[in-house]
Structure prediction request, 322 residues.
Amino acid sequence: MNMELLNTGLHIGKIVITSPAIQGVVSSLITTLFVRRGENIKAIEAFKAREFEKVANELLNEGKLSYVELYKCRNFLKVAKQADEMIADLRYDDTESEQSSGNKDKFSFDWLMRFFDAVGNISNDDLQRLWGKVLANEIARPKSCALRTLDMVRNMPPEEAKTFSLLCRYVMQSGDSYYIDSAGFFCEEDGHQECREYIQKLKLSYEEHIVPLLEAGALSIDHDLAIYISKDNNLEFHNDKLCGVVMSYDDKPILFQREAYFLTYSGKELFHVIHDVAEYEADEEYALLCLQEIKKQNPKFYVGAFSRLDENDLSADLLKED
Prediction:
């Protein structure tokens, strides 16, 4: 009967799913929810004929399916459809692509059940799209999204999820650290006028957008980016478009400090979920403004900015004065 159910979840509610990977997880879930209850071949064939409402009503009347399970199944399938539309366009290298073909055995069914429990109560379109990204990314890269990250996303209202997705455009990476430069979120008295004006144009603010993500656990309360820099040890950071560097020609280490909003472990996992979807685009302008500000405030250091998109001239310092 498991083979009979292979296409069952693919047509529930007239939702067609084409990705074999998404088909696999949907089939596994539907099998668990229905086959273990001894549904007959007639019900299975009705599912395959897309007569979901008819079969669902029969199962409800027979006490084999609760209204809560029906509601969760519908929401899960909508999220699975979102994942189906994204998974082919995920950004991952050839090694990950080869590994993804065998991830059916690696995929955690316990994770899927926790995922199902979380998305089953989500009917908001924006949140369903975010959960679709989570599912697509986990299928492509098993164990890339921890259970605690699922819990963090589960507790995010739509506004916070939308804010996090937007702020991901301003994330910079330095080694294993991911952060958003805080200059644009400072008060007027603290300076950083150009950075602040840029963030204000986006209608973002510390109180309304950073604080909720701190409380949600996506951002860390530690705001201090500090490192001793010498000629043997510099600071490099980047996004998809821009690479920044802070260097010193002095033998003696000099302390470099900058305030920033660091992503937590779960925040980093969620960032990769959003980053790896084709629609993501890093913001180059804000990163460049922040680097210009760093250069002004730190005359003891060499501060440079380089485009990662210009393959013809990787050595052109964008901060160099004419």
User: Anything to note?
Assistant: The first helix runs from residue 20 to 34. The first strand starts at residue 171 and ends at 174. DSSP finds 14 helices and seven strands in the chain. The mean pLDDT is 82.
